[in-house]
Amino acid sequence: MSIVVLGTVALDSLKTPNGIKKDLLGGSAAHFSMSARHFSSINLSAVVGYDFPLKHISMFKRKYINIDSLLIKKGKTFRWTGEYKVEDLNTAVTLDTTLGVILDTVPIVNEKQKNINNVFLANYDPDIQLAFLNTLNNPNFVGMDTMNLWIHTKKKSVAKVMKKVNLLILNDAEARDFTGEKNILKAAKSLISFGPKIVIIKKGEHGGLLYSKNYLFALPAYPLDEVIDPTGAGDTFAGGVMGYLAKSKKINAKTLIKAVSYGTIFSSFNVQGFGMEKTMNLSLARIHQRMNIFKQFFKF
């Protein structure tokens, strides 16, 4: 029930139709951890600079997220500034990116964490994902996320990582970009041929599709009447999926459907506030309450 997650821990500044926020805790590994922690012990591997607020370090500890492998180095923390426009809240416009210490630092794990069986490679440079994975001691289940930047600039490296993973999670635009297929199901079948045993394609407000050689199903998103900030929703979704699968210790139709359902519920909370405003203090009771409502959609 333990997971090692490689990814970014960042400071995000956002402009949305709902307001402007500066220096919010963000990053792929941080958002992943906020949901996965409800089901599994999380070991976070990332790098931040000396400017990283101590209050966030304290928060990780309060949430029982192991940060033994969180490197704090001289320099600036990775920062991202983006804008969401009212006509398309699914797509962020990047205004500025400061790579800081992640530019020349490869995250590490300590010796004990190298033996953990569940690994998630959150969005990161695929060459670093592969190097990181190769330092671990034969994990049983590996999940992976990526983004258009790496697909466009390092597609061969992304493909190398895909050969070594059990689960690939990406959105519909990324799936189409990587495969050249316009149809989502065809894209999923193409992605499976690169090595992953299971592919989940996120479709934002339209839900998602899971495909493997043994399973195929699609689930809707949880309906919301307002979206405040979509940043980190995909990473939060991945944390819910991976966290539940690690807890279940088995892969079958039931656990996969529940895992994707939990990912959907976690991400629905994420988008209802800025940054981790809603997921940081989320309880399992509230998660299960919303899950019970979600289940009602499938009763005929």
* Assigned CATH superfamily: Ribokinase
> How is the largest sheet built, in terms of strand order?
5-4-1-8-9-10-11-12-13
CATH class membership: Alpha Beta
CATH architecture: 3-Layer(aba) Sandwich
Structural class: alpha/beta
* C-alpha termini separation: 35 Å
Q: Characterize the overall form.
A: globular
Mind explaining what this structure looks like?
With 300 residues, the protein is of the alpha/beta class. The protein has a nine-stranded mixed sheet, with helices on both faces. Strands 3-2-6-7 form a four-stranded mixed sheet. A hairpin with a 5-residue loop joins strand 11 and strand 12. The chain has a single domain (2-296), classed as Ribokinase (UDP-N-acetylmuramoyl-L-alanine:D-glutamate ligase, 3-Layer(aba) Sandwich). The chain contains ten helices and 13 strands.
